[in-house]
Amino acid sequence: MNKKYDVICIGAGPGGYSAAIRLARAGKSVAVIDRSAASLGGTCLNEGCIPVKSMLKISKMRAELKKNGERYGLGVEVKSPDLKRITAYSKEMSAALKKGISYLFKKNKVDFIEGKASLISVDEVSVKQGVDSSTVLKADNIILAVGSKPAEVNGLELDGVKIISSREAVSLEVLPKRIIIAGAGAIGIEFACIFNNLGSEVILVEIKDCILPTEDKDIALGLTQLLKKDGIKIYTKSRLEIKQKEENLVRVKIVGVDKEEEVGTDLVLVAVGRQPAINIGELKKVGIEIEGGGVKVDENMKTTASHIYAVGDITPYPMFAHAAYKESEIAALSILGKPSAKINSWEIPAVVYSNIETARVGLTEARASAAGSDYKVSKHFFRSNGRAVLSNYPEGFIKIIADVKSRKLIGVSILGHEASELIHQFALCMSHNIPVDEVGKAIYAHPTFSEIVCEASTAVFGQALHG
């Protein structure tokens, strides 16, 4: 195969496939290269967003019935979960979405090529297929969208059996009696909730002084209380050491500031974040500069090599699928010679899908204070919301940080049910520079969780009806 394309996308995750479809619809000849058709959809579709949230939904259903089934008058007997069937269901959901991407590729005449891609020059890509077979493809533009891989920690080397990453966690068939999770960021907390809801004993270990160390401290402390209430053990300012791996047990030491504790566990899940899946030497050979461990890009997602773009987890932007979608749009529009709105990192929503969700857009209070902003903080609690009370989800609050002079949003953090949905009303407000007072002028249906957005926004510089 010797073919010239207008655009080659390396990587079939959210950034790669969305850019390819957009460009093909605009009349460009496009190819997407990935190692295997099984990788279509990237980390998000195969071992991240989709399967993890599917497992979390099922686990939350079980926990809700076990906790409140009798109170609701359902009298449902909650049996031991079948993890094999749960993970199989999550893979069904992923497979269904993969078919959708494959269909769009065919419909828009995007060539999907299986193989290991390597950059030869700014307009040439080598594709290795099998042991001896390789092909060189040419393109006017190249988009790098190779994604990320689980980060590792010295002393917690992954073996895929007893010391695992999220990749193995979404394919487990036997529920561990006890699991220790290293890292209390989004990934660690989501899996902590899944396994705890399904009946495992969960120990969460975080080296920083609180869980969710990049989020607002009030949100982190509030979620800590709720997770502990659910029975999850949390160790902060602590690290893990593997002492011994046995056939059916891993002996670990939890090392804290003031004490050490040795425990046995079925599994250790390393969830300390992710890192760009890039070959730095290969990139530098074609003139691509590295910045902060990722690929340096300008506001149009162009790298320092002419006609090569980078999107998704390999850039300095937050590692979210929704960020990759927006970055791919910007790159595609740049290739098409069309203007586009640029990304402000603080306008990208950050969500943690725990039992009680957290979401943020904009700055945390600590960052707002460090920036020297003249701001006002307002909190509004879910317990004042009718839908939250009747749904038996009264926990949590919305924390709004607004500029005193302009009344525009600096940051919003939410801890509460449906936080992942509510945050977008504030994101829209922030991206359009709308004063927070304006949010409360709309009429919100009752009873809805969205009413709390109205109430919270009104309360910042005025007086809320409830709260």
Number of helices: 14
Give the class from helix and strand content and strand pairing: alpha/beta
Alpha-carbon distance between the two ends? 66 Å
Low-confidence stretches: none
Report the helical percentage: 25-40%
- The amount of beta strand, in percent, is 25-35%
CATH homologous superfamily annotation of the largest domain: FAD/NAD(P)-binding domain
CATH class bucket of the largest domain: Alpha Beta
- Biggest β-sheet description: 7 strands, mixed
- Average pLDDT works out at 94
Description:
By secondary structure, this protein is an alpha/beta fold. It folds into three domains: 4-150 and 275-345, FAD/NAD(P)-binding domain (3-Layer(bba) Sandwich); 163-272, FAD/NAD(P)-binding domain, CATH 3.50.50.60; 356-461, 2-Layer Sandwich (Enolase-like, domain 1). It is built from 14 helices and 24 strands. It has helices spanning 14-25, 42-46, 49-68, 83-107, 166-169, 186-198, 217-229, 280-285, 321-335, 365-370, 386-390, 419-431, 436-439, 451-461; strands at residues 4-10, 30-34, 111-114, 116-121, 124-129, 133-144, 148-150, 163-164, 178-182, 201-205, 233-235, 239-245, 250-255, 260-265, 267-270, 274-276, 290-291, 294-295, 308-310, 350-352, 358-362, 375-381, 396-403, 409-416. It is globular. The termini are far apart. The mean pLDDT is 94.
